Amino acid sequence: xxxxxxxxxxxxxxxxxxxxxxxxxxxxxxxxxxxxxxxxxxxxxxxxxxxxxxxxxxxxxxxxxxxxxxxxxxxxxxxxxxxxxxxxxxxxxxxxxxxxxxxxxxxxxxxxxxxxxxxxxxxxxxxxxxxxxxxxxxxxxxxxxxxxxxxxxxxxxxxxxxxxxxxxxxxxxxxxxxxxxxxxxxx
Length: 187
Known about the structure:
This protein is α+β, with helices and mostly antiparallel strands. The chain has one domain (19-184). 34% of the residues lie in helices and 26% in strands. The protein has two helices and five strands. It has helices at residues 16-73, 179-184; strands spanning 79-84, 95-100, 104-110, 127-141, 152-166. Strands 1, 2, 3, 4 and 5 form a five-stranded antiparallel sheet that branches. It is rod-shaped and about 125 Å long.
């Protein structure tokens, strides 16, 4: 005589744990992929922000360098600097290129607050209040050639008031005669 196994009757909840766990895995996979995408985007935003900050501070240093040259050496000429990234990868050749305009006097007026303009040994009133215009543009570039596409660019135009200041020497006004140099100064 043959033994028969009793047939098991399926209940409606049988197999529901499998479906619930499968749905939970699908939801967790979607959440994990979303978090991964958000993290990657945030890293790109952080890298771009770092580039923007480097370019801004490079531009600002171009202005400061122009002011320092004028104050210490009476050097009003434009300059171009190519600064490599310290400790950077030599294969990428990351660098900042800074182009500063001439330090150009735009307003010359009496220095009313200067005590040295009062009577005495400085009564010739040789000291003045002079406003200068200067523009600095910085590029963040990578690669060995100068025609590389910039990773970032920034331009700052500033007006710098210096008092007391002696009358500007004639070489301070040389930018007027050179249209290319005059184009660099933005007001």
